[in-house]
Inverse folding.
């Protein structure tokens, strides 16, 4: 890859978006051997409120740690989509939860949508892994980290008892995004 | 063997830096956005025979820190904004009693409760003048996760070497940002130990200036006894109001930093040699500045970055020198002009100083700095 690639994970506080960003960055920085910085912004609420986690991935040193022109955006809620889509660049990747984000932002984006939260809840079996389903999808859509590295990074972050659950969540997210991308 | 590598948050790196420096005691009160420092210390200190205490409040934590340091331990506390205000009385106590300690203050919006989760750089004046009275101040302002680790080690070294409190002040972005860190091996970064007494207990004086401006400090519990007070004191530690002693002692406590500025001060100059416009920045803002400087150079603008790593002492002499070559300085910061004022104060009007101030919880972005460069004629 050449230069900076800027990714933003957004949704509501408590959905695990900061962790999704950390794992993506870890996949790049520790397992793929390129550079990454992860930062976050959230409100004082423990749950709810718009929350975002930003990851910059680059083959060179990263100075400014925040998004300047977003290459890829995940929005799990309408509030997050409204608040954080303003600087998504033309032709940028936009992944949204088709059940929860009903108004798409105006602009020329590569939009992919599927029922991310409900995939976690009904097909994987636990809503808590929504972030990992979304992460699998973002890995598929952005292609800036390898699938193998991302999977390793996921598994290094979860307790032993939940490895299969998270593997399944990651894989389903990856597959559904590939299918929905068209 | 390959070095240990991790993808770590700034606050976690500060805690690991403290442990690398040999910190054995932490007292504090959790507060956003500094809590992860306390969290790591609470998990790690017991493993190395240290003690972690969550105190009833911030001033109590500062008091515990001073007490623990006087037993010979290296000590740390961490806080943010309102917590720093609450610590001030005992920070002054540590200054006058000359007790080494390290305070990590992760800067958030203020005054008062302000914006607890938002980034800011508005505590740099509080680092110097938050506690009343004349005193020296040392404040380090790292800009990356790796540097936060290394500067925390250095903060302990300076605190022990000069017998005084040292502040490490990442802004919220640096404190909460995650980056790859390579852990130094033991011995790879110098770790300075406190100078203890070379005389028997009956001859020991805690403020004996015959050793120079930094008198050796004995540890309580090692057979040495001495008086500790917030009053102006004599060499034996007991209070005095004798004019010549008070004057000399106050001057010495400021001089021990002033005379050793070269040892303490640290900054980085990036493309400053031929620069016509120099951005003076620190913390996360310096990362925006570096991005802007690279962009400016691509467009033929001779821009440079002067990155402060210590905010106090401030590198006044070097900026005065550079002010003779530039057409202007740009000072982006997440406050309403604290660094800008200090820069103006040291360059004798040689060049204009154009500030960019943000206190809305968002970082100064590279575009703002690039726009400001166009105003330098």
């Amino acid at each position: 890859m050449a230069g900076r690639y800027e990714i933003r994970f957004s949704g509501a506080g408590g959905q695990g978006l900061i962790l999704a960003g950390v794992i993506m960055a870890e996949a790049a920085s520790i397992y793929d051997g390129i550079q990454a910085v992860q930062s976050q912004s959230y409100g004082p609420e423990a749950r709810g409120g718009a929350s975002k986690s930003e990851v910059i991935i680059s083959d060179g040193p990263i100075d400014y740690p925040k998004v300047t022109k977003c290459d890829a955006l995940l929005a799990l809620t309408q509030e997050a989509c409204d608040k954080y889509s303003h600087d998504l660049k033309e032709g940028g990747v936009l992944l949204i939860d088709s059940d929860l984000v009903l108004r798409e932002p105006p602009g020329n984006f590569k939009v992919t949508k599927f029922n991310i939260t409900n995939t976690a809840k009904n097909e994987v079996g636990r809503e808590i892994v929504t972030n990992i389903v979304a992460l699998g999808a973002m890995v598929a859509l952005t292609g800036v980290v390898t699938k193998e590295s991302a999977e390793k990074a996921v598994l290094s972050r979860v307790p032993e008892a939940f490895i299969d659950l998270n593997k399944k969540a990651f894989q389903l997210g990856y597959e559904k995004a590939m299918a929905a991308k068209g | 063997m390959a070095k240990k590598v991790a993808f770590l948050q700034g606050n976690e790196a500060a805690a690991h830096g403290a442990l690398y420096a040999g910190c054995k005691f932490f007292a504090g009160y959790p507060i956003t956005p500094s809590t992860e420092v306390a969290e790591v210390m609470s998990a790690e200190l017991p493993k190395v025979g240290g003690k972690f205490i969550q105190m009833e409040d911030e001033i109590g934590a500062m008091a515990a820190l001073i007490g623990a340091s006087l037993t010979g331990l290296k000590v740390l506390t961490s806080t943010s904004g309102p917590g720093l205000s609450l610590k001030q009385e005992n920070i002054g106590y540590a200054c006058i009693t000359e007790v080494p300690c390290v305070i990590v203050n992760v800067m958030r919006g203020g005054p008062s409760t302000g914006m607890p989760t938002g980034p800011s750089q508005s505590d740099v004046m509080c680092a110097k003048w938050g506690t009343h009275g004349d005193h020296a101040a040392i404040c380090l302002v790292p800009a990356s996760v790796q540097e936060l680790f290394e500067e925390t080690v250095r903060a302990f070294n300076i605190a022990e070497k000069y017998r005084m409190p040292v502040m490490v002040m990442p802004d919220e972005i640096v404190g909460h940002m995650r980056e790859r860190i390579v852990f130094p091996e033991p011995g790879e970064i110098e770790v300075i130990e406190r100078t203890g007494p070379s005389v028997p207990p009956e001859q020991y004086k805690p403020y004996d200036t015959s050793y120079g401006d930094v008198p050796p400090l004995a540890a309580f519990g090692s057979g040495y006894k001495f008086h500790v007070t917030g009053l102006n004191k004599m060499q034996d530690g007991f209070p005095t109001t004798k004019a010549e002693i008070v004057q000399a002692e106050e001057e010495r406590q400021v001089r021990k930093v002033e005379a050793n500025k070269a040892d303490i001060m640290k900054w980085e100059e990036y493309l400053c040699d031929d620069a016509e416009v120099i951005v003076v920045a620190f913390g996360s803002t310096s990362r925006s500045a570096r991005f802007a400087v690279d962009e400016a150079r691509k467009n033929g603008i001779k821009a440079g970055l002067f990155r402060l790593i210590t905010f106090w002492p401030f590198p006044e002499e070097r900026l005065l020198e550079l002010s003779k070559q530039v057409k202007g300085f740009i000072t982006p910061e997440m406050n309403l002009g604290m660094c800008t004022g200090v820069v103006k104060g040291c360059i004798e009007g040689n060049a204009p100083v154009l500030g960019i101030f943000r206190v809305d919880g968002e970082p100064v972005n590279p575009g703002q700095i690039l726009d400001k460069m166009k105003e330098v004629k």
